[in-house]
Design goal:
heterodimer; A: alpha/beta; 2 domains; 4-stranded antiparallel sheet; 10 helices; 10 strands; 23% strand; globular; B: 278 residues; 86% helix
């Protein structure tokens, strides 16, 4: 079996990641409460919500980088909790993760960053790795000359693109994007949005995107989930306050959803001043 | 008045209890961290290039500072000791005091302190920065275990190279003490070495080197643990670096005490004496 086809492709539309009654707290602070949701194979799911409502934590729970305080995370219907360390590491390679700040390894060049996963997990020849890495670097619109640069020499947009190239290096089935456009100018934001679409058009991948950028929601989302901070909810109210298409999000009559998608402060300033 | 005093006492007990719980939790967490590191060490060594990089940072780049401090501590011992020994007209015996102090205590502790300051703090800051910038999560996402990739190479480098650094500190300290005693203070060189050899045994040198391995292990584990549990932002990284040095230094002295008791007992087990000091 070739490296690219080492995983059985999931049936399009089947549940690939599932969270069942998942809660997560850090010390005494609860961030996620009783979340139940699914990610379907082949879709692009976008998670929106205010800062601090637990979207990034959600992504790390999905990938098994964090453990839930209660509830189950399932991959293809099987809970990840029972897996051994080795199984978890292997199964996690189905995922590519683009971190919020790109999380490039400072001590390595762009080339070494992108090659890291291949060197760590495969026995491929250096020649194949070089070929594969240069392809990934070109896929994200970077020149061959940038391969030798260090992360400190890159702009924000370049760092994100290198992060994306690194996330794609192991040809994952599922790519998780944690705020891929935060801090970028509008043009670079659109470049990243286009890259997300191009990645999907090249091969069938499932994508989960956390973003605050409504242009990203409009451009890439098949389905949108909106999270609400627990501190603003009444006990027992569900934390996911919206699920639907991007069009439905923009026409939602729920004031919590419309306030977020149209970016309106409303009475928030007075609330913050009183706090 | 009595109600206020009762409330104060309760607060004091409450905060004391809280601190005790946090201390025990911290120790337990450090113990688990150490066990996880040892477990990952048995699952195969990390790539040679990663270990060599750590060894270069820990060993090669520490030689300069260890040599300078070792040299000066040897010379300071000579200056301090000479006056006292001169009053008793026993200045030729100064070499025994300088050299026994160096190989048994000052060499290992000095090399370890330099390592904790130069390497331990840097390790805590580097791993702390990796944690706050999600690079440790990125390692896991790319199929690498952070313990195997980050902690094991640093542990091996500190554990294996600190005896060499200690040997350098011992040697240069002995040279510094001899240089000042014989070339500046006028002590006879032949008697200086003769009395030194009477008092300094191979056992003293070996236990000093052995002791340093415990110091190296403690520095690596504490520094990596602080880095892995670093708080958010620049303040968190700074605090991790400071805490790693302070905790490592305390650990060096505490470990020194217990290992010294052990090696002293061991000495009397191997070579029984009529009266044991301990």
């Amino acid at each position: 079996m070739s490296f690219e086809n080492r995983f059985n492709s999931d049936e399009i539309g089947s549940s690939i990641i599932e969270l069942k009654n998942v809660s997560r707290q850090f010390g005494t602070q609860q961030v996620l409460r009783d979340i139940t949701m699914q990610v379907y194979s082949g879709e692009t799911l976008v998670l929106i919500g205010e800062s601090g409502c637990g979207k990034s934590v959600m992504m790390k729970l999905m990938m098994g980088l964090l453990e839930s305080s209660s509830g189950d995370v399932l991959w293809n219907g099987v809970p990840i909790a029972g897996r051994s360390d080795g199984e978890l590491v292997q199964d996690r390679l189905r995922f590519g993760f683009l971190f919020q700040g790109a999380a490039l390894f400072d001590s390595m060049s762009v080339f070494e960053n992108v090659a890291f996963g291949l060197r760590q997990n495969t026995k491929m020849s250096e020649e194949y790795i070089r070929h594969s890495v240069m392809n990934r670097i070109q896929d994200v619109g970077l020149s061959a000359a940038s391969a030798s640069k260090m992360p400190s020499q890159l702009s924000g947009g370049m760092r994100k693109r290198v992060g994306l190239a690194r996330a794609m290096a192991l040809m994952p089935d599922i790519i998780l994007y944690d705020e891929p456009t935060t801090g970028l100018d509008p043009i670079m934001t659109d470049v990243i949005n286009t890259l997300i679409l191009k990645t999907r058009s090249r091969r069938p991948v499932t994508s989960v995107v956390v973003t605050h950028e409504m242009s990203t929601v409009r451009k890439v989302a098949d389905r949108v989930l909106m999270f609400y901070p627990l501190s603003r909810l009444q006990p027992g109210e569900p934390q996911i306050v919206f699920e639907g298409t991007p069009e439905q999000a923009f026409s939602s009559l729920d004031p919590r959803v419309s306030q977020f998608v149209y970016g309106e402060a409303r009475d928030r300033l007075e609330e913050l001043a009183a706090a | 008045m009595s109600t206020a005093s009762t409330a104060d006492s309760r607060n004091l007990i409450h905060s004391l209890g809280g601190e005790t719980i946090r201390f025990v939790e911290g120790l337990g967490d450090l113990a688990l961290f150490t066990l996880t590191t040892l477990r990952w060490m048995t699952r195969g060594l990390p790539r040679r290039s990663v270990v060599l990089q750590s060894m270069y940072e820990v060993g090669v780049r520490s030689i300069g500072v260890v040599l300078i401090t070792g040299m000066f501590i040897g010379m300071v011992l000579a200056v301090q000791g000479y006056e006292q020994f001169h009053l008793m007209r026993m200045e030729t015996r100064i070499g025994a005091v300088i050299n026994i102090a160096l190989v048994k205590e000052l060499g290992p502790v000095l090399a370890a302190t330099m390592l904790a300051g130069r390497v331990g703090s840097a390790m805590a800051a580097e791993l702390g920065t990796m944690r706050v910038t999600e690079q440790i999560d990125a390692l896991r996402a790319l199929g690498a275990n952070p313990y195997q990739y980050l902690v094991v190479p640093r542990f091996l480098a500190c554990f294996l190279l600190i005896p060499l650094l200690t040997a350098f500190a011992d040697a240069i300290g002995i040279f510094g003490g001899w240089l000042l005693s014989t070339q500046v203070l006028g002590v006879d060189s032949a008697f200086y070495w003769h009395h030194s050899l009477d008092y300094v045994a191979a056992y003293d040198v070996l236990t000093g080197l052995l002791k340093s391995m415990f110091f190296g292990a403690a520095i690596a584990v504490i520094s990596c643990h602080r880095g892995f549990n670093c708080g958010a932002g620049a303040e968190g990284v700074g605090r991790a670096a400071t805490e790693s040095f302070v905790l490592s230094f305390v650990a060096i002295l505490v470990t020194d005490f217990f290992v010294t008791i052990f090696t002293t007992h061991l000495y009397y087990v191997i070579w029984p004496a009529p009266v044991s000091l301990l």
